[in-house]
Amino acid sequence: MAQNEQDIIGEVTSSDYKYGFVSDIETETIAKGLSEEVVRIISAKKNEPEWLLDFRLKAYRKWVSMEAPDWAHLNIPPIDFQEIIYYAAPKKKAELTSLDEVDPELIETFNKLGINLEEQKILAGVAVDAVIDSVSVKTTFTDTLSKLGIIFMSFSEAVQHHPDLVKKYLGTVVPASDNYFAALNSAVFSDGSFCYIPKGVRSPVELSTYFRINAANTGQFERTLIVADEGAYVSYLEGCTAPQRDENQLHAAIVEIIAHRNGEVKYSTVQNWYPGNKDGLGGIFNFVTKRGMCEGDYSKISWTQVETGSAITWKYPSCVLKGDYSVGEFYSVAVTNNHQQADTGSKMVHLGKNTKSTIISKGISAGKSNNSYRGLVRINPKATNSRNFSQCDSLLLGDQCGAHTFPYIETSNASSIVEHEATTSKISDEQLFYCMQRGINTEKAIGLIVNGYAKEVLNQLPMEFAVEAQKLLSISLEGSVG
Amino acid sequence: MLQIKNLHVSVQGKEIINGLNLEVKAGEIHAIMGPNGTGKSTLASVIAGNTNYEVTQGEITYNGKNLLELPIEDRAREGIFLGFQYPVEIPGVSMTNFMRTALDEIRQYRGQEPLSAGAFLKYMKEKKELVELQDKLNNRSVNEGFSGGEKKKNEIFQMAMLEPQLAILDETDSGLDIDALRIVAQGVNKLKSADNATIVITHYQRLLDYIIPDFVHVMYEGRIVKTGDKSLALELEEKGYDWIKEELKA
Amino acid sequence: MTKKAITIGNELKTSLLQKFDEVQMEMLGKEPLFIRSSRQESAQLFELLGFPTVELETWRKTNLKSFLEKTYDLEFEAQSGNEQDNSILQCEINQFDTDLFTQYNGKWIGEASQLRIYPNGTIVGSLSAAIQQYPQLMEPYFGKLANNSLHGLVALNTALFDEGYFIYVPDGVDHTRSLQMVNIINSKQNIFTNTRNLVILGKNARLRLVHCDDSMDFQHSFINNVTEIQLAEGSNMEYYKLQNKDDSTAIMTTTFVNQHRDSAFNSNTIVLNGGMVRNDTQVVLAGKGADAQVVGLFLMDRKQFVDNHVFIDHAVANCTSNQLFKGIVDEEARAVFNGHTLVRKDAQQTIAYQSNNNIQLTDTSKIDSHPFLEIYADDVKCSHGATVGQLKTNALFYLMQRGICERNARMLLMVAFVGQIVDRISLPNLRTSINELVRKRLKGELSSCEQCSIQCADPDKPLHFEIDMSLV
């Protein structure tokens, strides 16, 4: 059987990244390289107020004084930050009011991605903000949402239309000085999504942002800010793809979430950046800081991520549980194949009383990849009666890959309970034999077993995302077992 | 022996028992029946002193003492025994060590000398025969790896060891096959005397075929709504609880 | 990436290096070349590495700052004192039948400094005596099992060690009588000791070793211990480490174990007291079928600190390992567990477990648990678990309902919690007495080794003896 499996590995690992096309969209870029001047140019291009330019410049100065983190279980080649273009935008003038005005090439791009904006908005009832090469090209559903007082628009528009809100929350959860990549993003972020759900409003549709890196040599630095006011609820989806290119491209994003009293935000990601080819050439370097602040009592923030893409993933969606009785959740499936490297997990910081957090992480490694879970659970002295449960499992497909678990548990409270457990396993020959005896071929069997293994997490995804994620898991992995 | 007047109990702000009255005298057997979630187990826990429950109103006196002022262990030492519905598994604590510690502390409370090791083991052996409990359980941790039947037998065994004055058996019959039920019931009957009393909490009348109650109480929505003799249990078995609910509405 | 310059402990570092130069002169020609050259190399390495600081990932939680800023007596000047009476110094674990070897301030006194050679060929005693008499036995292992670059303290130890114990059990010998090594620290000054041990087990040899660290003074002593253990094919070692230090002492132990085919290493570290305790255990499973069981127990209160680091390297296939650490942390104490299991690429059929369970009794105490798995082979069974919690309230209620007072109920549950570790001690007498010590410790009655006649638990009580270093 092993021989058979080896063949299949070969076959599948050479399967193509289906989002690897390049769209021929006219792009406006600035000269490559990073300096205070570039930061000023980006800010000027976006016609930003003085305070935002200050924010950027402070971040830039901080970044210059910092060093790239080296603690993750990743082999990161040196990144020449002067070789990156920090601003690239589709050339068609922004201010679009209907989809008809969007560049047809762009619409085609989204169709290829499986997100027909028009169709999606009607069928799925999902409001979509599409960010291409750092600039938001279209936000659908704005009208419906605005009737409810929901603000959902590109970050740049929000800066123009709702400067007070942006100013109030920007950088409050992830300060510019938080880490190297957060500082970089804070200095050069070009766009992203902004979302505000007012008091007591439950968003009737799922809000969604699709990120696409298209232009060559560009970095993407988007910034998402989501605020759920008291008693508000929103489910937010994020998807990402990039063309197949031989050089590495940098993606350094920030997502900040604030949930006030009784507010709830559910954030789901299907990350499918180009992972590089089977020899490890090319692919996105994905350095993302995502953090939620459960500011008010009884608030809740839930992260769900399906990570299949990127050459390198460095990402720890976290929750700061500040309000009493607040809840943080992290559900993750991370798949690495070929030469991919992922160091991902979560941080749960318990500050308030009776706070609760759950971490469910399922790592799947194949090919020559390395997949690490890294997580922190911290219970502060005042977080009485807090609870955490973490389960971090790894599945190894083949004997060339690595699966690692690095949990950090730090508790300072005598009435709290923290439990962490983890297992490492492979798909057993017995399981495969059992499936095959029932007439299922190896490839399908592996797909079935892996999907079963990840089910706890996939179940957290909204329906339309879950289907996509399942397909993606199979594509990323089919037959890659040894 | 035990008087409960106008008892109100809540858990996390939710009232479970509201205005319950009950009197138990020496030599009596009381059965408390009623649908799920009516507060039967809560009542047992409150009498034993479980701190998860908050008594918001009312009083419980036991042999003239205010029971609510006594800590859990003193209630036990005063002779209150709770047969748990779900006996807790305590890994690492051997049955022998557990019983020895409990018996020594109770004897000390009563001003008695502790038993010598030899006398203790002899006493334990004697009591074990009462419930046909196997010897090997001695060296096992408390309730750990016990089957459902063994756990319940173990509760009756402990009751025999500690010779309580008031035994409260919380669903001791649940999950028992007919043989285990017989053994448990026989144990209870053998321990019965003119000086002690028993409260049996149960769903089913079948236990009452073996342990004949002097009084049967029906509990509903946190109160005792009907009291009768053994025949009431039979009537409940036959007709269910709906007719009582009807009666209450009327 | 450039790290900030390490300045902590610089003064101490300088004086230690000075001391090294002196020793170097003194020992010229007295020690075999392999020792001299490893001292030389390690001194340079220490000069480079300095003391480990919280900047290092593996030392993030162990802050030696306050200890490194103290002044230490590095010379151990001979002091006049009372007549030695070995009998009063015996840290006798209750009727535990062992051959006792006692070191004072890390040195051997009088006749004890002679090596003891058993009829079965086993050699036990002073490391420096062994360097003179058995250099050929030591050379293949000494300084080679230890990874001098692991951190500065190891390099420092290799450079500057002055004494320790040497144990050699020849091929096929089951040394049935347990050996007990006791190192008692008692000095009027803060002393800094670098003790070094080497244990070699031949093929199919077997050894049971008990190592006790006690301290008697209330000085801020710094004990830097490195132990190297070589386990040849089929050998079996039980290693019990009992640490009962006063709150002002820092004890850093680093143990390197090299295991060959089908060897078994069973270590049990019991920390009853200690101001600043750090135990590093580094095991390499280098031969198929090797098994390492590294377990430990810690009971910390007041402002005590313990950091247990275990690194198990599954270098080859078919090995098994288990890490199990349990502890109860009270008052303002702090406990760190850092487990790291590495399964290398071809180490298939590995079975590795890791477990750390803690009971936290106060909001002022702190527990850090880092159970790490790093796995590069797919056909393995690896799992880990870590918990921090309290005594179960339903179990407490159950016990109290049976008439047991809260204090005793808690005690029963705590003893049961640590029982899993104590029960693993295979020597019945040792198990009984450790059990007793643990009970006393949990009741707060033990702040020092119970049987020790010195009764240093009471600092007001004057010490009856002083170690006469002139006898060294």
In brief:
The complex is a heterotrimer of chains A (about 475), B (about 250) and C (about 475). Chain A has about 475 residues and is of the alpha/beta class. Chain A is about 25% helix and about 35% strand.
Structure, explained:
The complex is a heterotrimer of chains A (482), B (250) and C (472). Chain A has 482 residues and is α/β, with parallel strands linked by helices. Chain A has helices at residues 2-13, 36-45, 50-64, 104-112, 117-123, 142-147, 155-161, 163-169, 180-188, 429-437, 442-458, 463-477; strands at 27-29, 88-90, 126-132, 135-139, 151-154, 193-197, 206-212, 223-228, 233-241, 248-251, 254-259, 264-271, 283-294, 300-307, 312-315, 318-321, 327-336, 341-344, 347-350, 356-365, 370-379, 387-396, 402-411, 417-426. Chain A has a domain at 1-315. Chain A is built from twelve helices and 24 strands. In chain A, helix 3 runs antiparallel to helix 9 (180-188) and helix 11 (442-458) packs antiparallel against helix 12. The longest helix of chain A is centred in the C-terminal third of the chain and has 17 residues, at 442-458. The relative contact order of chain A is 0.11. Chain B has a single domain, classed as P-loop containing nucleotide triphosphate hydrolases (Rossmann fold, 3-Layer(aba) Sandwich), CATH 3.40.50.300. Chain B has a six-stranded mixed beta sheet with strand order 6-9-10-3-11-12, sandwiched between helices. A four-stranded antiparallel beta sheet of chain B has the order 2-1-4-5, covered by helices on one side. Chain B has a two-stranded antiparallel sheet with strand order 7-8. Chain B is globular and about 60 Å long. By secondary structure, chain C is α/β, with parallel strands linked by helices. Among the domains of chain C are: 10-84 and 92-287, no CATH class; 392-442, no CATH class. Helices cover 22% and strands 35% of the residues of chain C. In chain C, helix 2 (33-49) runs antiparallel to helix 7, helix 8 (393-401) packs across helix 9 and helix 9 (406-422) runs antiparallel to helix 10 (428-442). The relative contact order of chain C is 0.12. Chains in contact: A-C, B-C. Chains A and C meet through strand 23 and strand 24 of A and strand 18 and strand 19 of C.
